[in-house]
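Please check this:
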Amino acid sequence: MYPYLQEIAEWTWNNTGLDISVTTNGTAASEEQIARLEGYVSEVRVSIRDPEMCNVLDKFLGRRFEVGVNLLLWRGNGSVLEEIVEKSLCLGVNDFL
């Protein structure tokens, strides 16, 4: 994650009245980085391209922001989109793009 993301999110949250959404694939996000975003972002969207990537959602769920999934579609993975949605729903995610 961008090293100054928390500072930017905090300033924007406190000074503009804007809701903040962050999009990530989640693989490089550490527990500390994610925790520092709590209270300063309204939503984190996790981009997922295959069912195995759904495991990364656990890092983000149960925090003080909403979690959504961005479904990544490209040639060859159309057959797994339904599985990604099903796994995400079982984890408690119900917002998909």
